[in-house]
Amino acid sequence: MSSQPTNGVGSDAVLSEILSTLKRMQVDHASLAANVESLSSRVETQSTLSALRSQPRGSVRDSPSLDPMELGKAASSPSTDSPFSSSKPPPSPTARRSSVTSRIILTTYPGQSGIDPIPLDWGNSDPAKRGPVIVSRLQHTIRRRNAIGAHGGSYSIYNALAVASNNLDLEHKPDFTNTEPAANIGPFPAWGSKSKIVAMDPYGHLAPWLYKDLMLGQNIDIRPTIAVTKAHMKIPELEQSVQAGRLKPDGKICINAQGELAVTKFAVEPVWYLPGVADRFGIDEASLRRALFEYTGGSFPELITRPDIKIFLPPIGGLTVYCFGDPAKMSDPNVKLALRVHDECNGSDVFGSDICTCRPYLIFGIEEAVKEAQNGGSGVVIYFRKEGRALGEVTKYLVYNARKRGLDKASEYFQRTENIAGVKDMRFQALMPDILHWLGITKIDRMLSMSNMKHDAIVQQGIPIHERVLSQMR
Ligand SMILES: [Zn+2]
């Protein structure tokens, strides 16, 4: 009890100390907000800057206000002593147009004045009723957004750098002429399911063409999240396969004696329907949103403030589908399908590092997929950007070191990974089968992987696997 203030004078002193601290914090907060605000005013056009400067001199310190408009005016006044303020024009005013307002919109709320999201009914089989995924924060689009995050997955950060460094004009409008998919796909029944596809936009390859009216008529920024192209690919090991007689050139799928392959490729960026993603993991949507908010450094406050928005474009890598043979055969139940689902291992896949056997497995998958296509079926390899069990290369190399300096056994790998990262594996295959549903795959005749996690995730999604093929390591 002796540590408590025992008389009225002591309590008053403590109280007034608290009050004055609070007051200081308010003022600090206001000037911090003003500084942040002034950062954005610097990148305004010259005319906007002049307009803002002509405002009456600010009085941030006298009357703290958190109204960003008021703060913006005050902060851009030349009289302010903010370290971020500058009366100099931006380095390249012509690269900047009025696509960003002077206000930093930290977050929005449902029903807020001017907030008018374009309706989006995930799982509706009519793309017009389903509606486009809109995530852009450009001037004409920001109030119509129905998704959180940004296009490009992890590359969204480079986009931000390009804007910050004046290398990208915000007014730039993509010209999608001749960029249409190089192969037709679907539509399949799963495209109209709320639960079968939750981690990609089934209309992502057609978005600019399906929603052209909105783009042109209302100046809404809509971008594709899937692209489809055709290419040739050449892998040294497949030339050896031809030489060894395992692979026979047919001029169509395996083009020549060098083992060159014809392939149709689908690049897919992640688009998450949050209720569906939560469902896959057996958790509630609120817990998922809270965790995504907290562990991205609070980057996406609308995960918390906009429960009405259900779509999130996460800053992570996507996937690529490599399809051998006619893409239409992937969904044909009358022909055989061979499939490998491969998770990225850059060191082995690209650089041939001998510390693991990922590349030989990948090559085996490609060779078997090509053979299946040559036999009149379909061969598919799906490559997921989930480096080092989705823990990344830094953690991976730490584990390698720990393994080499301890007992270098495969069984140790899991334990050492868990010791370092807290989990054995973060690839969580639960969302992986979405791409199979999207491709119209209803069964897998030959699964070119022995992973139980992948097998179980696919079977749980109602896609039977008839045979699991063990890679023949060569
Ligand atoms: Zn590997």
User: Main beta sheet: strand number and arrangement?
Assistant: 6 strands, mixed
Give the total of beta strands.
Answer: 9
> Regions with pLDDT < 50 over 5+ consecutive residues?
1-9, 35-99
Share of residues in strands: 5-15%
Under the CATH scheme, which architecture of the domain at 127-166 and 178-386 and 427-468 would be assigned? 3-Layer(aba) Sandwich
Name the bound molecules.
zinc ion
The top level CATH class name of the domain at 127-166 and 178-386 and 427-468: Alpha Beta
CATH topology term of the domain at 127-166 and 178-386 and 427-468: Rossmann fold
The CATH homology group name of the domain at 127-166 and 178-386 and 427-468: GTP cyclohydrolase II
Portion of residues within helices? 25-40%
- Average predicted local confidence, pLDDT: 84
What is the succession of H and E elements?
A: HHHHEHHHEHEEHHHEEEHHEHHHHEH
Counting helices, strands and paired strands, the structural category is alpha/beta
Radius of gyration, in angstroms, nearest whole number? 28 Å
Overall 3D shape: globular
Ends distance: 77 Å
Order of strands across the main sheet: 2-3-6-8-7-9
Structure annotation, total helices: 18
